[in-house]
Specification:
The chain is α+β, with helices and mostly antiparallel strands and 72 residues long. The chain has helices at residues 2-9, 24-27, 30-48, and strands spanning 54-55, 58-59, 65-66, 69-70. A two-stranded antiparallel sheet has the order 1-4. A two-stranded antiparallel ribbon has the order 2-3. The chain is elongated, with a radius of gyration of 17 Å.
Length: 72
């Protein structure tokens, strides 16, 4: 995994900052990451179930994918 590679390379950098919202880099605990993933998809489903307010996914011209967009 990328996290393992970054840990191996840490000593090669004066400073290495990894921003990991899934907390896997810090903990190494796949179950923590899986819980974050599960909650993300639950929340996304809750938003997209409100078809009068949200829609998605949407691919922007830049190629970036937005999971949910608010209707205007």
């Amino acid at each position: 995994m990328v996290a393992n590679l970054l840990h191996l390379l840490e000593s090669e950098f004066a400073s290495l900052e990894v921003i990991d919202e899934g907390e896997y880099f810090e903990s190494g605990d796949a179950s923590v990451l899986e819980n974050h993933r599960k909650r993300f998809f639950e929340t996304l489903d809750e938003y997209l179930a409100q078809e009068d307010k949200y829609y998605g996914p949407v691919r922007l011209e830049s190629g970036r994918i937005i999971d949910a967009m608010e209707k205007e």
